[in-house]
Design a protein that fits this description.
By secondary structure, the protein is mostly helical. 67% of the residues lie in helices and 9% in strands. Helix 2 packs across helix 4 (68-80).
């Protein structure tokens, strides 16, 4: 059985590693966004929306916790760069559906193919049970982050916090 001190240290190390991983991911995605003349929020909105059928601006606002006016600006930038198209819903002409053109996938294929090769080589060092544990942890962390982000977005700013988007 692991000592309480060792377990506490491992948790601290894991949290530090996750913070570093998140920071490196933000920098990676900003670098990719720069290649497209966009910002990282634009790219992440596009990424979050990839599996959404019949995506609307309202649904994207819901997924991200951003205001509908901020999402409209994001969609305007993505549309100008050819990453999304706005189309009228054939079933309800008042409704506008946002459709990814796939351009970001095509333009990122080479970059992400290289990254995927490195990650797959790294994952080859782990057995099926370890990979299943990583997957379960990752899914739970994503769900916790989604819930926390939604709750934080609905709170009023605290003292010394600015409510204006940066």
């Amino acid at each position: 059985m692991m000592s309480e001190r060792r377990r506490a240290r491992q948790r601290e190390d894991l949290l530090a590693m996750m913070r570093e991983n998140a920071s490196r991911a933000v920098i990676l995605h900003q670098t990719i966004a720069d290649r497209f003349g966009l910002n990282s929020t634009d790219i992440k909105c596009l990424d979050l929306a990839r599996d959404e059928p019949a995506l609307t601006a309202g649904r994207l606002a819901e997924l991200t916790g951003m205001s509908t006016s901020a999402i409209t600006a994001v969609l305007d930038r993505l549309e100008r760069r050819g990453f999304v198209e706005r189309r009228r819903d054939p079933a309800d002409r008042r409704k506008v559906i946002v459709v990814a053109t796939g351009e970001h996938v095509r333009r990122n294929a080479e970059v992400f193919a290289r990254l995927a090769a490195e990650v797959n080589a790294l994952l080859d060092d782990y057995d099926e049970e370890q990979l299943a544990a990583f997957l379960a942890i990752g899914r739970r962390l994503n769900a916790a982050t989604r819930t926390f982000t939604a709750a934080l977005g609905s709170e009023a700013p605290g003292p010394g916090e600015d409510s204006a988007p940066s």
